Every structure is written in C-alpha cells, then in structure tokens.
C-alpha cells in the first residue's frame, strides 16, 4: 500500500471517523477550473481525491458524470492533462488516485502511465472496468511504482470473487453500494452494509462505499460501517449547475464541509 | 490442427476476455454456465431447432445467382438469410438468447440495435416467447431507420432513443449496459453481435454458426466440393462469424470479411475497424477498434447503420491476426453499386450491410476469375433501407412522410 493512503486511513481511524473520498473529473469544465474545484473540495474537508479521466464510453456512469466527461473531452482534455491535474491535486497534501476506464491507460501504455502517475505524486488507480482477472500488466506496473490498485466489489460478487478481488486490491477496496451506475440517490441502500460486512470477513484492508451518496446525512449512515465514504456525482453536479465559476467552487466547498461533518462517527 | 477458440476464460489469443464492471461478472458467469448447460441439453436444442425451423424459416436456401455471377465474372452462390423471418440472420441469435432467457427465468429482456435488425428480431422473439422487451437505439439511427422503430413498437417493444455520445450503436450498447447493471436480477441482455464480454462472442457464434454449417453442406451437395471463398460483411461480425466457423478448418477456403469503408479508409470517415483501427478495449473485450491517440473511441461512419460501429468481435481480430481470414473495406459507393447490381440482375434488394459483402465478392471475382465459386452470405434484405437507397440514387423527388412527425 502506498504510504499516503495508509496514513489517511490511520488518521481517520484515530479520529473515529470515516475517510471522505471526493471525485471530480480532470478537465471539467476546464483544466484550470478542475484544479480549483479539487482544491475547494480538499479545503472543505475531502481527505482523498479521485481524479476522473474523461472517457468517451463510460458504461458505469450515470448522466451527471457522462455530461461532465463529454464536456471535458469536447474542451480538448487529454490524458497528459489528467496527469497534470493529479500533480496539482497531490500538491494539496491529499492523497490522489485516478479513476479511469481501462482503454485510455492501455493506449497510453500501462507502464508509462504508472511511471507518470507515480512521478506526478499519484497514489494509485481505481479501475471500474478492469477486474483482477485481466489485470496482470497493471498489477506488475503498479507494484514496480508503489501504486495502489483499487478494485471494485459489488453486491453481486460471489464469495469466491470477493476474496480474489480483495486479495488483489491494495490501498482500499471500493464497494459499490447499489447495483447500478454512478449518480446521487435519495436513499442509501442496505446492500452497502451487507457488502462491507462480507468484505470485512475476508480482509482487514479498508473498505470504501460509493455510488449514490450525495449529502452529509447519507455519509453519516455509511460512516457507521465503512472506512471511507466516496462521493462523486453530487460534487460534479455542483459545477454543472452553478451559474458562475465562483458559485460552483463555493457549492463544492459547502458540500464537502457537509459531507465531512457527516463522516464523523460521534 | 483443429481450431478451438476461445479458452475457458473467453480469450481468443490476446483478444476477447472480460473488461466489465465487477457487478456484471457474476451475471456473465451465470450466463456462461447456463449456455454451456443448455447447448448440451438435447431437449433445449431440439426446442431451439424446432423454433428456428417452424418459426424462423431456417435453414435458409442456397441460391446460385446466375445473372449476378455473369456480371461479376465468377460464380456467386448466395446464402439466403434475407428469407429468414424478420429478414436477416439476426433471428437465429436472438431466438437462441431469448429461449435461454426463458430457461434462466428472467421475465425482461433488453437489446441494443444499430440498423434496427437486431432490435426487430429481439422484439419479435420477445413477443413470441412472452418476454417484456426494451430496445436501446441511438437517436441518429432512430431517424435513419424510422420504419424499424415503428416495427419494434408494433411488436410490443419499448424503444429508447439514446441521446448520449455519438447517438449511434456504440452509445446504445453503453445505455443497455447501464440498464443491465441495475436490472440484472430480472433482465437478460440479448446481445446483438459476436462482440462484448465473454461469453457473448462465443455464444453468439454458436447461435449463428448454422449459417455456415448449412451452407457448407448445401455447397457440397450442389458441387461435390467446397467453395473457393466465403464472403460476409463485418460490423460487429455476427453474420460473418456464423458463416466462417464452418470453414475455418478448411484451409483451401478463403475467408473474407468486408468492412464498411465509408467515404474511404484514408479519409478517416469509415467503420473499417480491422483495416483502419488499432487494438484496444471497448464494450468488454480486447479487439480492434477505432480510437484516437488517447484511447477515446472515434466515431465511425457508414451509409449502413448496421455496420456503423467502431468495434468488432474479438474472434475476427484473432482470425485476422493469425491470417486465417482477411478483412477488406468496401466504400459506401462500392457497396451501393453492388446493391444496385443485385437489384437489377437478380430482383433481390439486399440490406445495405449485405451490399458490402457483395462489393467484396465483386472484387474477389476479378481476382479469382470465372472458374471460382464464391459463397456470399446474403445476411439481410433491404426493405428497411429502401428510403436510404432511394435517397442515395436520387429516386425520390418529393419529401416522404415516414411516420407522423418525422419528415425527411
């Protein structure tokens, strides 16, 4: 495990709270603004940053993140820009991982991507469409560079797959709380708690819960049983909906503060 | 050596596999096991074959196209998949998948469609087998294939127009996958081509291979020997893999897949994935695809909605890689010239997809000469394309009202 991610989980544990993980896509709405947005969410209390790599065919994502990715690509966002955004994000002091579909990494070159990500201060990769079964090249490259491999587990994962995936993962395990795509939901799902319990049975690696979390109250519910609460679409929506640049950044900071209060267990 | 692909994890050499969200892996495993069980269950296969025979009009005839042959300069045999119920080879695949859905006990089915052929076949099979049906179709395709949208609705399916991304087949697949990940407990995904994550490429091949198995027997009966070449169009590649599979071990039979060359491969506006693309990962499998320097999928272009797809089934990439099959492009203009020729010489209006295979056969005829016999999969009929073809040939003077509210 990269030191930075381990430290953040240790610190949160000591403070009796869950780690708050925030997702924003690189290059949305522009590279500069996506960096400011990340700084705003870290300022508001996000502990660990997920930088999204905008992709043309995001099958795991709902309409909000799809729209952001489309805008980022239309504005000309490139893979090298994502690395720049990681560098800026890591400079805030928050450990930073990239969340990406697999093809852009393969196209960039798996080893080259791992080298450049590590050089930019990145801590690892979340891979929504890369399962450990297909990940030999990435496992080798990440080990070489000391990067974490955050694989996903789902309510539908069999016990056998759960154990195999958790075994291959490092940093933390990403538990998708609902069967579905990313996007804010009114209610959290009971599937998340069951899934975390299943993961905890086979590992002491930290478990983060994502998909559908949009406010402090939901974050608080999840913090009761998970080591990290992961928020994406709700943060992206702040930027999509904002009438002005500064209003968007302010909305992100405010939401991050609300979420941060939510992840306190007491 | 006898050809045996894929391996147990769905890899055709370095191609194929499963690049999918973990949430869908268990359902894909379940599907894989269900199909493995079903295809070795004589009762299931007897039921499937009965349906294909009584309902889908399979086996389709083999037809020697004399006048087209004369124009081509080689002997052309057509495997008449256009005469199947719903007018294309697609019914073979979808009846199989829908019957499997019944066996698994899932009451709802979803499908993606480009030209509408697979959507119509899915809507048909769901009506026949009493399944609820939702079809995802790119907005651009709903416009150029408005009649097929109407056909699907007549058959009781819900058609969802997909407005994300390039609003064509690839985006319809994305949207269907998003539906599936949220509904997989009750829903089967009837995948329309021999692409996608394992087990779809091999399952769809198993279900379409009757095309080649029948044709091989029919040609042998007719000629006492195998054809010199077998030709099919390739979008995702289901009709081509269905034709090729029977001949893979027959080293003397040339296998030619014809991709959509659009405005020409050198213009960048095409859908010739193997000819003009690179290896990458899209829609769950490693295969050739059209992508930019950063691995973003590039929009494909073709006059044929059914071939307008930036990916291709992994087994075709493998067959290209090992040199067993050859993949060549035919441009929009070449395909439409072949379309016109078949109409005028044989009184058969082919699907524009299929016209690409005919264009490839015309080229091959020049190369092989008059003694050659070329088997072409006439994968679909062109009723759905009459509007596009009439516009292309300038046969319509007045605006045609296709359905209320859609005027072109």
Report on the structure:
The complex is a heterodimer of chains A (266) and B (408). With 266 residues, chain A is α/β, with parallel strands linked by helices. In chain A, 51% of the residues lie in helices and 14% in strands. In chain A, strands 5-4-3-2-1-9-8-7-6 form a nine-stranded parallel β-sheet. The mean pLDDT of chain A is 95. The mean pLDDT of chain B is 95. The longest helix of chain B has 17 residues, at 352-368. Chain B has 408 residues and is an alpha/beta fold. The A-B interface holds A 55-60, 62-63, 66, 70, 73, 78-79, 102-108, 128-131, 133-134, 151-158, 161, 165, 176, 178-181 and B 9, 17-27, 29, 164-165, 170-171, 174, 177-178, 181-182, 184-185, 280-284, 291, 293-297.
Arithmetic mean pLDDT of chain B: 95
Net shape of chain B:
globular
Percentage of residues in strands of chain A: 5-15%
Instruction: State the shape of chain A.
Output: globular
Q: What is the level 1 CATH name of chain A?
A: Alpha Beta
Task: Indicate how many domains the architecture of chain B comprises.
Answer: 2
Write the element-wise H/E pattern of chain A from the N-terminal end onward.
HEHEHHEHHEHEEHEHEHEHH
Total count of strands of chain A:
9
C-alpha end-to-end distance of chain A: 28 Å
Biggest sheet statistics of chain A: 9 strands, parallel
List the total number of helices of chain B: 16
CATH architecture of chain A: Alpha-Beta Barrel
Low-confidence stretches of chain A: none
| Structural class determined from secondary elements of chain A | alpha/beta
């Amino acid at each position: 495990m990269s030191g930075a991610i381990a430290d953040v989980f240790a610190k949160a544990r000591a403070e009796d709270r869950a780690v708050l993980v925030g997702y924003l896509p690189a290059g949305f709405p522009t590279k500069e603004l996506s960096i400011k947005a990340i700084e705003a969410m870290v300022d508001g209390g996000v502990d660990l940053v997920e930088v999204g790599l905008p992709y043309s065919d995001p099958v795991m994502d709902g309409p909000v993140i799809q729209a952001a990715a489309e805008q980022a690509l239309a504005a000309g966002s490139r893979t090298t820009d994502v690395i720049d955004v990681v560098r800026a994000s890591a400079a805030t002091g928050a450990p930073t991982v990239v969340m990406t579909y697999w093809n852009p990494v393969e196209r960039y070159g798996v080893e080259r991507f791992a080298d450049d990500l590590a050089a930019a201060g990145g801590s690892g990769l979340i891979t929504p469409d890369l399962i450990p079964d297909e990940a030999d090249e990435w496992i080798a490259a990440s080990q070489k560079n000391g990067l974490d491999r955050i694989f996903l587990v789902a309510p539908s994962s069999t016990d056998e797959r759960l154990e195999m995936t958790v075994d291959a993962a490092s940093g933390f395990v990403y538990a998708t709380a609902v069967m579905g795509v990313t996007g804010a939901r009114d209610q959290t799902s009971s599937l998340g708690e069951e899934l975390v319990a299943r993961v905890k049975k086979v590992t002491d690696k930290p478990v983060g819960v994502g998909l559908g979390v949009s406010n402090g109250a939901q974050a608080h519910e999840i913090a009761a049983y998970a080591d990290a609460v992961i928020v994406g679409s709700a943060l992206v929506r702040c930027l999509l909906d904002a009438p002005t640049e500064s209003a968007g950044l302010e909305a992100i900071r405010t939401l991050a503060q609300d979420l941060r209060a939510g992840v306190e267990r007491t | 050596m006898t050809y045996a692909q894929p391996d147990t994890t769905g890899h055709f050499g370095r191609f194929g596999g499963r690049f999918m969200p973990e949430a869908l892996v268990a359902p894909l495993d379940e599907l894989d096991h269900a199909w493995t069980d079903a295809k070795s269950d004589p009762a299931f296969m007897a039921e499937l074959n009965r349906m294909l025979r009584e309902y889908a009009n399979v086996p389709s005839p083999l037809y020697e196209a004399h006048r087209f042959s004369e124009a081509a300069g080689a002997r052309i045999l057509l495997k008449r998949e256009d005469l199947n119920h719903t007018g294309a080879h697609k019914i073979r695949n979808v009846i199989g998948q829908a019957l499997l859905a019944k066996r698994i006990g899932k009451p709802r089915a979803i499908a993606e469609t480009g030209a509408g052929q697979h959507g119509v076949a899915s809507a048909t099979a769901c009506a026949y087998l009493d399944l609820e049906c939702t079809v995802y179709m790119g907005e651009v395709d709903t416009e150029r294939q408005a009649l097929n949208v109407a056909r699907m609705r007549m058959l009781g399916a819900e058609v969802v127009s997909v407005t994300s991304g390039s609003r064509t087949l690839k985006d319809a697949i994305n949207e269907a996958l998003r539906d599936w990940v949220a509904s997989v407990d009750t829903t089967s995904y009837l995948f329309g081509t021999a692409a996608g994550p394992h087990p779809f490429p091999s399952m769809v091949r198993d279900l379409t291979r009757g095309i080649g198995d029948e044709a091989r027997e029919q040609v042998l009966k007719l000629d006492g020997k195998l054809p010199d070449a077998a030709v099919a169009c390739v979008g995702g590649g289901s009709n081509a893999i269905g034709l090729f599979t029977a001949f893979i071990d027959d080293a003397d039979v040339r296998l030619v897949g014809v991709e959509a060359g659009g405005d020409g491969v050198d213009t960048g506006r095409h859908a010739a994935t193997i000819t003009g693309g690179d290896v990458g990962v899209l829609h769950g499998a490693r295969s050739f695809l059209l992508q930019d320097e950063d691995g973003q999928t590039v929009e494909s272009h073709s006059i044929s909605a059914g071939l307008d797809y930036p990916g291709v089934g992994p087994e075709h990439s493998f067959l290209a890689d090992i040199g067993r099959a050859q993949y060549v492009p035919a441009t929009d203009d070449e395909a439409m010239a072949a379309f016109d020729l078949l109409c005028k010489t044989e009184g058969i209006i082919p699907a524009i997809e299929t016209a690409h295979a005919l264009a490839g056969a015309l080229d091959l005829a020049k190369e092989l000469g008059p003694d050659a016999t070329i088997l072409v999969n006439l994968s679909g009929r062109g009723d759905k394309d009459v509007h596009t073809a009439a516009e292309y040939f300038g046969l319509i003077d007045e605006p045609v009202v296709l359905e209320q509210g859609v005027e072109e």
